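Open question from group meeting: does this chain pack into something compact, or does most of it stay loose? Before anyone orders reagents, we agreed to write out a predicted structure and look at it together. Recording both the input and the output here so the notebook holds the full record.
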Amino acid sequence: MPMPVPRTAAVAAAVALIIGLAAPAHADTTSQRQRDFAAAAAEFGVPENILLGVSYLESRWDTNAGTPSTSAGYGPMHLTDLREAGAATSHHDEGTEDPRGDDARPARHPQAGPAAPPPALQTVDEAARLLHTDAGTLRTDPAQNIRGGAALLAKYHTGDWYEAVAKYSGSTGDAAQTFADEVFDTVKSGIARTTDDGQQVTLSASPDLVVPQHADRTPPGVECPRRVTCESVPAPYQELPGNDYGNHDLANRPESQRIDHIVIHDTEGYWDSVLKLAQDPTYVSWHYTIRSSDGLIAQHVPTKDVAWHAGNWYVNAKSIGIEHEGFAAKGTWYTEAMYRSSAKLVGYLARKYGIPLDRAHIIGHDNVPGTVPSTIKGMHWDPGPYWDWSHYFDLLGAPLGGFGLPGSSLVTIDPDFAKNQPVFTGCDSPGTPCAPRGSEAVVLHSEPSDSAPLLKDAGLHPDGSASTMDVSDVGSRVATGQRYAVAEVRGDWTAIWYLGQKGWFHNPRGAKVAKPAIGWVVTPKPGLATVPVYGRAYPEPEAYPANVPVQAITPLPYTLGAGQQYSSAGTVGSEYYYAVTFDLADHVVVKGKLKYVQIQFGHRIAFVKADDVRIAPAF
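Structure tokens returned:
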């Protein structure tokens, strides 16, 4: 193992090694994308493995069907063109979700206003000038896009490839160095994959590469892992007129109550605008925001405190909320830099608080249940069907799927992200088909046929109509990593129990979208025809002290029927965090004797009373 060396020497050694290893990496492949990288590297004098490493950290070498990333980047080299991508509207300002989701307080529906994109999202113009071509060609032609990225790297190079890579990120300071570190780590370890358009690309490992070493970049008081760049952008805890306050609640977690979930969100806005919202006492709150271009992490609320982010007070009180710069409705893609930074943060938090690394505890905002029947329709659905949960859990070191025996009565949803391309609508305008894109979502039908109607969701569609293919409609959709009990199998079709119905999906041999799983399932106890389902695990009335209003235990408009089974995430105690005043001394954690079981009931999680169900291992 090389001995640690000063940063300047380390970079010099790295550059020397990279140049020495710059022989074409495509000798054993006929991949056109690989040849494009080699040709561009040679043309502009950029080490091929540096070019491959930068592209991987931006796009994983994908084309993403010509759609922009969540930070307006196009193609394998993520050349940014905000002029073409445009500013997306915010689903956070639609619907009726109250981010607090607490019946003890008036609903809060703050409006974010238009998201102002930063002017820096326009590197495609500089690349076009260097190549004497137009921005449209660089957005749509992968080979020209790679040439454009190589030209930019060559321009940024002033004798130090590490610094050129850092500048390519579009950031400065520690955030730019974090991006460069990730690129150099990728070059050192090597990687190979098949892209979203079927190209085989390989970055050969450089095990002797010396990656520059840096001091811990975490400022004092910020809860972050090493090897990422974090900053503190505190959310205000502030009294407001009208006996109100914002924009979160003080607490003493985990001593006062366990933290059971981490909730993944997208911002529906650009970095600068979102950070201003996080500092607005009249707005709502979340614990962290992660930037798309370089993975920079900003912490707003200490994890011991409760942020107002998930639309369900029970979940808020027991979770950490992480926002990712991006737009779910645009059908865009998330950068590898952000995925990696997020995975490091989630892994750090999961270890710190003992949170299981599974899809029952690392959930999307779209997996958070409505609190009562009237709130279901307004619940948010980010980060959307284009968040790559499978890749994300690979980065977490907790791969999804494939751990059960054939024929198991429990399955994990695990489609091939790139090949799985359901045709959703409404990404850009209502009813308009979204661009074909890889997706983590598998659509369910009421019968084993692609032409059969989708399932009904009594909460989302109380009029009794079937669910739709609108990108925001999660009423007949399962997500990668979620586990469900098998109800029936007919040929290449599998049915699972879902919202009290059988939901069918195509699961042919050789192209499985669900893998056998191991785990526990719940079913109603003998003698019970149906079991109520809840969006919160609140205590029994007798548990509340005299000064705390009793919170209703209100069932959702679904039932779990006899003979049906649902995947169990374990038994949880009943809790309610009473926090309606600015003074922490008035806050009370109410814990009851009532026990619940968290289940995967539909696209969202839910709870049933432990006394109503029998828990058994899946076979």
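Observations to bring back to the group:
Residues 1-28 have pLDDT under 50 and may be disordered.
The two ends are 47 Å apart (CA to CA).
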